Amino acid sequence: MRFVVAPDSFKGSLTAVEVGRLIEKALLREMPDAHVDVVPMADGGEGTVESFLFAVEGQRLDLSATGPTGERIPTFYGLLHDGETAVIEVAAVAGLTLVPEGKRNPLYLTTYGVGECLLHALDQGVKRIVVGLGGSATNDGGLGMLQALGVTFRDGDGKRVEPFAASLSRVQFVDYGTIDPRIKEVDVRVACDVDNPLCGPRGATHVFGPQKGLRPNQLERVDADLASYAERVEAHVNQAFQHHPGAGAAGGLGFAMLSIGASLESGAALVAETVGMKERLRSADWLVTGEGKTDSQTLHGKVPYYLAKLAKECGTPTILMSGSLAGDVEPLYDVFASMHAIPRGPMTLEEALGQAEALIYDKARNIARLLNVQHKR
Predict the structure, then answer these.
(1) Quick count: other Cβ atoms within 10 Å of Cβ 372?
(2) Alpha-helix runs per DSSP H in the chain
(3) CA–CA distance from 286 to each of 12, 33, 150, 274, 377 (Å)?
(4) 375 pLDDT exceeds 80?
(5) Going by C-beta distance under 8 Å and a sequence separation of 6 or more, which residues neighbour residue 6?
(6) Residues of the chain with CATH 3.90.1510.10
(7) Whole-model pTM?
(8) Are 252 and 141 in contact (CB under 8 A)?
(9) Are 287 and 311 within 8 A, CB to CB?
(10) Predicted confidence (pLDDT) per residue in 359-368, tens digit
């Protein structure tokens, strides 16, 4: 029997690689002759580089870059085995987890390091760059990233502005003519799983700002500053991006990516395409996927649902393992052959997180035993 095991991470407990390895171990214990293809998945957030490197091989490149607070930090990105594709994870250089809670003030956090990672990748001679936008701490509209790439932003006195969101209101002059020309010569694809515009009630500031540290009385002002900055950029490049779905992703980093010619795409679809998921599924008997929590939101482009739809197109049935099944999951039976919550019985979230490895292994083993009986008939 041939399996593709392609889980997302179980956030707060295990990475996608760890989950995939546990399921593989359980399947092989009950089916020693099975072929198990572990393909850890991600949607552009934390763990994206690890998933890519595990699935298609390559190397992790370590470097020093500007972190979200403006200080130098150690970070990394992936260079895939073809030597021509880089994978950059925004969470690893401008992520919320990199900022101590006491310093979470998006007005003084920057995406400058993202631009430095892009430049480092260009120095390797890559032809393609994949950027995962999830998990950012910032709300600077990509101002920092663009400055690192060479774009010039000046205030009314002709002085260069600081690469922080607090500088957005001061931007009066924009010049993309100073950008590193190599960025226009590569294919930049961005994993983005939100469709928020840059500004307004559904924009970056109002929707994501509070969870990053913005106070309620700051939202209107910051949103207006972001809109003013965006209008300056759009006037210079003579294109409109701020209302594009996904422009508000990662505190407006989606907007900045669009302005340099990048394409915003479904994270799950982009990762699946890059690792050759459809070809893997065509030769499999089963797909086993998983996530930390399954509910109605799973229908809206989350990794397991996207993979299950893809598997259905290939004629491969899908089994879902989840930390919990909540709400009305009936519509999910359209793509999942079966769905399994991993807890053995009533337990708190803390208990489930603490026992995640054993729970996932045991559930996968029981699924394998059931499939084995059916297979031997």
Answers:
(1) 14
(2) 16-30, 48-56, 91-94, 112-123, 143-149, 204-212, 219-237, 249-259, 267-274, 277-282, 303-313, 349-354, 356-376
(3) 27, 15, 48, 20, 17
(4) no
(5) 20, 38, 39, 40, 41, 277, 287, 288, 289, 307
(6) 48-267
(7) 0.89
(8) yes
(9) yes
(10) 999 999 999 9
* Cβ neighbours for 56, distance < 8 A, ≥ 6 positions apart: 80, 81, 274, 275, 276
Where are the CATH 3.40.50.10350 domain residues in the chain?
2-39+277-376
Say yes or no to pLDDT of 168 above 80. yes
CATH fold, domain 2-39+277-376, is Rossmann fold (3.40.50)
Is the dihedral angle over the CA atoms 136, 141, 142, 143 positive or is it negative? negative
Query: Rounded to the nearest 5 degrees, what angle is found at the Cα of 358, between the Cα atoms of 354 and 363?
Result: 125
d(CA 176, CA 147): 10
Reduced to 3 states (helix: H, G, I; strand: E, B; else coil), residue 56 is helix
Which positions ≥6 away from 177 have C-beta within 8 Å? 152
Mean pLDDT for all residues in the chain: 93
| Fold topology of 48-267 | Glycerate kinase, domain 2 (3.90.1510)
Instruction: Identify the residue whose tokens are 């707060």.
Output: 12
Taken as a whole, the chain contains a residue count of: 377
What pLDDT, in 10s, does the model give residues 244-298? Answer: 999 999 999 999 999 999 999 988 899 899 889 999 999 999 999 999 888 877 8
Gap between the Cα atoms of 259 and 143, Å rounded: 11
Q: Residue with structure tokens 């026992």?
A: 355
At which residue do the structure tokens 């890519």 appear? 52
Structure tokens at 42: 């991600």
